[in-house]
Design a protein that fits this description.
The structure is a single chain. The protein is α/β, with parallel strands linked by helices. About 35% of the residues lie in helices and about 15% in strands. The chain has helices at about 30-40, 80-85, 85-100, 135-145, 165-175, 195-205, 225-235, 245-250, 270-285, and strands at about 20-25, 45, 70, 105-110, 150-155, 160, 180-185, 185-190, 190, 210-215, 220, 240-245. The strands form four sheets. A six-stranded parallel β-sheet has the order 2-1-3-4-5-10, with helices on both faces. Strands 6-9 form a two-stranded parallel sheet. Helix 1 packs across helix 6 (about 195-205) and helix 5 (about 165-175) crosses helix 7. It starts with about 20 loop residues before the first strand and ends with a helix. Bound molecules: NADP nicotinamide-adenine-dinucleotide phosphate (NAP). The site of NADP nicotinamide-adenine-dinucleotide phosphate has 25 residues, from helix 1, helix 3 and strand 4.
Length: about 290
């Protein structure tokens, strides 16, 4: 798939928009939460970590009602959810219902793992989900729990300069080893959290209807391709040994092809490789 040009920030701003919104971010300590806090810095941001509000419990009484909720708090341990599907559902379904109870329009983040990957082509919003894993099921039920005033934003393969993600794991392994074994038969869109945060801002600043929106990086690749690109861009001398999903043997099944595209007028994100370069530059600045 070719390298698309970003057209973020090119459309009409929402004339009804409150100038300085009270924006509440859940899961603010996570990789997307950190990026959203930066992207919405011009607003009045209340960034809540798990210690401030464990979303498995109802909204704390003292919490001021916001104009917008960016709900990123989630159980994101895909393999761990197979062992504790109830625990994953408490956060991803119950927690989303609680966030919706704040009564403000909400952006609820969901995942490419709501699809089974059997389409063999990019998934658009009108495709029927069929999750393969407990995590995917919890995210799909979480979409429904977000309610009628929700933008359900599905994204995929997130990476950023903070937290746990594939990019940071590869940088660590690539510095330690001559070779890493990486899955080469799953294809998706590695999405830089900075680009997803900017696209989220564009989505909520414009007059777009509530509903499901696919926001993922342009282009697509396998995990092995992504690892090779990371080593190349970071100047690490480490080989990628291409293995199959079966050889890797993860606990949770994952879709073979979960490329996300939009059949609506969604903001377009830059190419995943541009996201990689930007993210490495941020890491370099903070070294
Ligand atoms: N990561 C991906 O590849 C990916 C792909 C597609 C969609 N998504 C979705 O995108 C969103 C953001 O993901 P992310 O990658 O930023 O995840 P992340 O880095 O794991 O951050 C999730 C945050 O949620 C917090 N959290 C977990 N349980 C909580 C609870 N019960 N109450 C309050 N906070 C809780 C975590 O806190 P602790 O650190 O204390 O656990 C963490 O700060 C999630 O909805 C995820 O499902 C992620």
């Amino acid at each position: 798939m070719g390298r698309a040009h970003a057209r973020m920030g090119t459309r009409t701003p929402n004339p009804h928009r409150v100038s300085r919104r009270r924006v509440l971010i859940t899961g603010a300590g996570g990789q997307l939460g950190v990026a959203l806090s930066a992207a919405f810095a011009a607003d009045d941001v209340r960034a809540l970590r798990r210690d401030d509000w464990d979303v498995r419990f109802p909204v704390p009484e003292a919490l001021a009602r916001p104009d917008l909720v960016l709900h990123t708090a989630a159980w994101t341990d895909v393999d761990g959810a197979e062992d504790d599907p109830q625990g994953a559902a408490e956060v991803n379904v119950g927690g989303t219902a609680h966030a919706a109870e704040l009564g403000a329009p909400i952006v609820a983040y969901s995942s490419d793992y709501v699809f089974d990957g059997s389409k063999g082509a990019p998934y658009v919003e009108s495709d029927s989900p069929r999750p393969l894993s407990a995590y995917g099921r919890s995210k799909l039920h979480g979409e429904a729990a977000a309610g009628a005033r929700a933008w359900v934003v599905r994204s995929s393969w997130l990476f950023g300069p903070t937290g746990h993600n594939f990019l940071r794991t590869m940088l660590r392994l690539g510095a330690e080893r001559d070779e890493v074994a990486v899955v080469a038969d799953q294809r998706g869109c590695p999405t830089y959290v900075g680009h997803l945060a900017a696209a989220t801002r564009e989505l909520v600043d414009e007059v777009v209807p509530f509903g499901v929106w696919h926001l993922a990086a342009a282009g697509d690749c396998t995990w092995a391709d992504f690892a090779e690109a990371i080593f190349e861009e970071a100047g690490l001398d480490c080989r990628v040994r291409r293995i199959t999903t079966a050889e890797f043997g993860a606990r949770a099944p994952r879709p073979a092809v979960s490329i996300l595209r939009s059949d609506k007028a969604a903001p377009e994100l830059p190419h995943w490789r541009d996201g990689l370069v930007e993210c490495l530059a941020v890491l370099e600045r903070h070294r």
